[in-house]
Amino acid sequence: RTTMKSLRFISAEAFVSNAEFARKSLGAVTHDLFPLLFKASYLLDQGEVIHDLVENWPLFDFNIGKLLGATLDYEEDLSHRTCSVCLESCLTGLRDYVLNQSSPYVKKLKVVDLTGIKDVEVQFCKCKKTMGRWARTQLLSKLCSDLLVYLQQAQCSPGTFEVSINVLIDLFVTEQNYELVVQALLKKCSCPLKICCVAFRSDNLTLQKFFYIIKLTDPSLLRKLEIVHNVHLEMEHLEMLFNCIHFPLLMSLTLPARTFNVRRFTATDEQTLTKIGEKMGEMMQLTELSMSFSILTGRIQKLLSPLKTPLKKLDVSNCSLNHADMAFLANSFHANHLEALDLSGHDIPELYPSTFFKLLSRCSSVLRSLTLEDCNIQDTHVNMLVLGLSPCQKLQEFKFIGNPLSSQALKHLFTFLCELPMLKNVEFPVPRDCYPIGITYPIDDASVCRFDHQKYEGVAEELNLILLQANRDDVKASTPLFGSYDAAVQETNNELGAYLIKSFKETLEKFTSSFNKIN
């Protein structure tokens, strides 16, 4: 689909396409044309022009999400382009804005918002190199530190020290960039570029380092907190975190796997869980909560009932929920507001079919994303599933990998899915009849790729044909066997892999040592 461009935008493209001419002529450009030229430069990957536009930015704010989003001059949203050349040019341009003493424009810039960038799998820029959230965190922290060193050593005009710009960013911290980010946050008061952390994600960090850096970020500004891989946060640590740090604006919370395990609970643990629920209700405005791979059997009400704001997103995948948990969800005030729901890893047809469909019915008017992976949905359940999904007219994404469905059942389901007007993304399982007879579900990692690939390709073609015949070529259907694309994991997979190998080696050494002692 070709996106229409206004004459203004076409003129802007022509202007920035000659980088040398554009850079020389910026001094004669009126203020109100800077946003237009920025988007045109970004579309054409004109890094040098982007740098100079930011270095001479004449406006009070620089919001990259709005600048790259849909505009009257050019409707295409470019905020999903995390082009390395363009983003590096933006950030170095920001540093040079502080240092530039010869700009013809008065320095008005007060707020830079980098939070509107969306990390996606496929990039359309010429360089094909991305700058993900981790790399943006790394580069901004380095530029802040370098800027301070330069200001201390160089002869700068007094005006340079008066520049104060709040830079809103989603930080992503791991062991590898931890020291650099800590240094930038510690020197925030002295630096003209002041890092303001709106969202924070941590992977591969010790608890001591996590607690230290989270205090430095100014938690009163945090809207989103993700504690994900290899941060060994358990329930007592979570209580400690909520007791010593307040998150008044926090709307989204992701906790690492195994934060909760009710099978090991004592009476004291029950009290701790109650306190955590109360803290989340008292001092946060949560609308998104992810607690996957914790064991929460029978405790969902205790955690969620104190919340004062309705949840719009809930991930309780592989949490061993029982009938009481599902009944609470179906009857709670959250149900009418859920836009994204993940119940993967629960045997829905066997354990609580009617309660699940009640929950689905209550959230149907707003539900945009539904994930039911490894839920033991079989051919005999498809008609019921179709009935349950029919009112979900706003559904954009449906993921149901790992369910034992035949090719025939998938074709029936796809014929129905064509009728959901907003649907954009479907993740479907390898049909059961593509696997050897006798395969058991859930399929283990060792067996997941042992299917008839030729037969699968044939079925996938038929399913895509069903979409095409219904004029639904806007729907992407795929089978990501090892999970959906995760930009954060993709960007830091080398560090994550090294950590896992190190952990495995240490475990092996402990086992060998214990074994040798026995002998």
Fold and architecture overview:
One of its GO terms (cellular component) is cytoplasm. Belongs to the PRAME family. LRRC14 subfamily. The protein is of the alpha/beta class and 519 residues long. The protein has a domain at 7-131. 44% of the residues lie in helices and 10% in strands. It contains 21 helices and 13 strands. The protein has helices at residues 7-17, 19-25, 34-43, 47-55, 64-68, 84-99, 133-153, 158-162, 178-186, 207-216, 235-244, 267-283, 300-304, 323-331, 348-351, 353-363, 382-389, 407-417, 453-469, 487-491, 493-518, and strands at residues 61-63, 111-113, 165-173, 193-202, 224-227, 252-254, 288-290, 313-315, 340-342, 369-371, 397-399, 425-427, 476-478. It has a 13-stranded parallel β-sheet with strand order 1-2-3-4-5-6-7-8-9-10-11-12-13. Helix 19 (453-469) links the parallel strand 12 (425-427) and strand 13. Helix 2 (19-25) packs parallel to helix 4, helix 6 packs parallel to helix 7 and helix 14 runs parallel beside helix 16 (353-363). It is globular and about 75 Å long.
